[in-house]
User: Fold Argininosuccinate lyase from Halarcobacter bivalviorum.
Amino acid sequence: MSNQNNQILKNTNAQILDEFNASIMFDKELYAQDIKGSIAHSAMLCEQGILTKDEQEAIEKGLLQVKNEIESGEFKFSLVYEDIHMAVESRLTEIIGEPGKRLHTARSRNDQVATDFRLYVQEKSLSIKSQLKELVETFVNVASKHTKTLIPGMTHLQHAQPLNFGYHMLAYANMFKRDYERFESSYERNNYSPLGSAALAGTPHNINRDSTCEKLGFKAPTAHAMDTVSDRDFALEILFNISTSMMHISRIAEELITWSSYEFQFVRMSDEYATTSSIMPQKKNPDVPELLRGKTGRVYGNLISLFTVMKGLPLAYNKDTQEDKEGVFDSVKTIEISISILNEVIKTMIVNVDKMESACKIGHLSATDLADFLVQKKGMPFRTAYYITKDVVTCANSLNKDISELSIDEIRSANDELKEIDDEIVMYLDLRNSMNARTSFGGTSTQQTEIQIENFKKWLENN
Ligand code: ARG
Assistant:
């Protein structure tokens, strides 16, 4: 091989290696946290007499200039600097000279990246939390309009018992409220400052970790330097929290897809959220909820991916850990857009009350009420009542009626035990009465649903 060719090969290899090693193309997302962390660090170094006031002022001013350059698009992100931390420091030194080289005193990129990334995760936990609150509010608002709208409640996707649609919506309000609480508790658990852990063992410099902790808004400094630079639990937690919320989003998306199908027609989604088919001109496809459901896959992938990266790492920092960020950025972006889109879909969907209510007349939804009546009023053992009710269902089927449509004579004819049953049973089999009979705590009756809505309203006010 000629010398020239050899040189080209070497350059190419170097370039590939730089690209392989670098994280700047994605960790530039952390520029604001990096600069915030560096300002806090320099201020603390100054308080401790490690930097002079002039040096600190130059550093702070320079860092703010770098921030401006990044935000205005002037900043050149280059692979030469490997990651955002090196890039910011190098540009700072270019601008202010000598004091820039003192910024990294008593700090390592290991505690720096742990700090920046944790700041990012903490900020996102709060913003996702507030998006979730809006989503809860949307479900509660829809619920409060439909506490009397009947919908068939299902198990195994088979008609089971009548519910009101508001109650069904509140199931999702509960899920997203738990998600909110999950982000909140992770935020609290991880609200500790890594800065000052240095490379892995702390530092001989006379630093003050409480001071940087306070400047960065954490509750206290982390307790163990080596644990801190190795730990990515906080990133796993946000990935888990996002996965759980996406799982909930995916379930409502699935219901919306079913409910908007021709066979159900329970809801109609605004045309903005549907697309046409390229071949079948008559079609309207629920692409948006399908994507909400589909994007859940990548979010789960990001969680499993980081779990796998972390599982065999010896203490302390290893470069593998650089693989922690892209998945988190991707999951955060995915959940942010997914929550805001779902919020709009739910706000704008049109509920087809007539279709929901007429669907309740299929499948003998109030059959359990007959069994319950026999238990409550006749003292019958539940299992006996169950078999008697089965006969009434058979009778209704043979008459091509729903159990709620049977006359008292038809009910009496279904089983000898029912020969003398009181006419009030007809009332018990009425679908709306059946829904309203479920007054147990957490049940579906309109009265219980309204209590649940009130509780949600209080929660929304206090959070
Ligand atoms: N870019 C690295 C990361 O994201 C920063 C930490 C590098 N530390 C080191 N000793 N190489 O993890």
